[in-house]
Amino acid sequence: MRLKPYMALGYIRDHPGATQQELENVLFMDANTVVLILNELEAAQFSIRRRDPQDRRRHIVEMTPAGRRAIERADQARESLEDEVLAPLSAEERKTLRGLVERVLDSLLAVPATKA
Asked: 46, 58, 65, 92: which is deepest, by most CB within 10 A?
């Protein structure tokens, strides 16, 4: 699985009821890119979009059972690759690295998007 679909599917898994707009915001992607990714996930039968019954303008994205199996396999492959890449680091060093990366990502999420 490629990185962007993996990120989208992981977010959908972790945030049931996520909207297409929400994916655009949290993945820092424009609407067209998210549509292409969701088209790819739907073609693979990993997700479905449906209209939000509360607001017909919005699409809610849901994971299918096939999507759940695919993300589990992709997670296992990522963990294996992560173990290989981080092999020189101790458990404590990995924990420190993870914490630092999370701080950077959190700060990115806290910065309001600027319009060009």
From this structure: 46
Do 72 and 61 meet the contact criterion of CB atoms below 8 Å apart? no
**pLDDT per position as a tens digit, 47-74:** 999 998 888 889 999 999 999 999 999 9
**Secondary structure of residue 8 in the 3-state scheme:** helix
Neighbours of 12 (CB within 10 A): 25
Report mean pLDDT in 10-residue bins for the chain, 116 residues. Answer: 95 95 92 96 97 90 97 96 94 95 86 58
| Candidate CATH numbers 3.40.309.10, 1.10.510.10, 1.10.10.10, 3.30.70.1140; the one for domain 3-84 | 1.10.10.10
